[in-house]
Here is the input.
Amino acid sequence: MMEAALMDQPDLPVSATTAPQPDGELRLADAPKAGSPAFRAILQVLVFVVLATVAMQLFSFLATVIPNILLVSAVTVFLGSLSATALAMRIFQHASLPAVGLHWNPVASRNLAIGLLLGVLAGIVVTLLPMTWGALRWEATGDAFSWGALWVFLVLILFSAIGEEVLFRGFPLQRLHETFGPIPAVLITSLVFGWMHSSNLSFTWLAFTNTVLWGAVFACAWLKSGDLWLPIGLHTGWNWALPLLGVELSGFTLEITGHRLVGEGTLCDGGAYGPEAGILTTMVAPVLLYLLWRAPIRRSAWHPPALARAGESGNIEDRQR
Here is the structure.
């Protein structure tokens, strides 16, 4: 009946979005059509989501043999994301897992080091700055320091960061970037990144906002470097710094050094969720993004298929500006 009503109005303007089709029907031209690049990109990302979900469910059996929930979570995300990405890259890109941005070379090691440095510095700023006006104070936990526990923590956080960066800034970000450009790709993956943390303890709306902002920072790090090692370094450095300085990490308390920083539960310290639910983390994100863009970061000599195809079309630089 809608079609009949439209046909009865002779003065109705015919636009690109309501142009009649050969079969006489009116369709939205902007909607992704089956077989179109946009439809294929969306479908492939959805398939990747299914593959990642299934893979992580399969690896969740580790919870029956490993009592530490954080260790189980890190290993599950690491193995699940790499398995799903390897399958997606093989099926859709006809490439191996390293093609997603995990090739190791001197440029990759340099980008990893820069990312670690910037991530640690950001963590130090948001953690120690409130101490200057007395918002945080040191307190002994009574737990003895252990070098073994420290090494386990460092490796655990590294594997966790690799898993999350491959999961969010790997195939999904790169496939969406290839078809829709940087802004939609960064926005969509960052929002999902924030939502995936919503089940953490003491999660707040400011924690969600900050997680989305930092997801965008990590995504821009990939745009800047062309590999995943820069965002992996940023993510790892940040996640190393907070627990080592004695504050909560995404709502989890990891007592590593035998000391912790106790705050007043304000917007400055983030309360029970930690600095990631604080206003200082919100303020640091754009500063870090500026430093990231100004840092002497070299692009990876090998680009993922998405970047390679964009470069062949001659618009890679325009899409990254």
Q: What stands out?
A: The beta strands are 136-140, 259-263. Residues 107-320 form one domain.
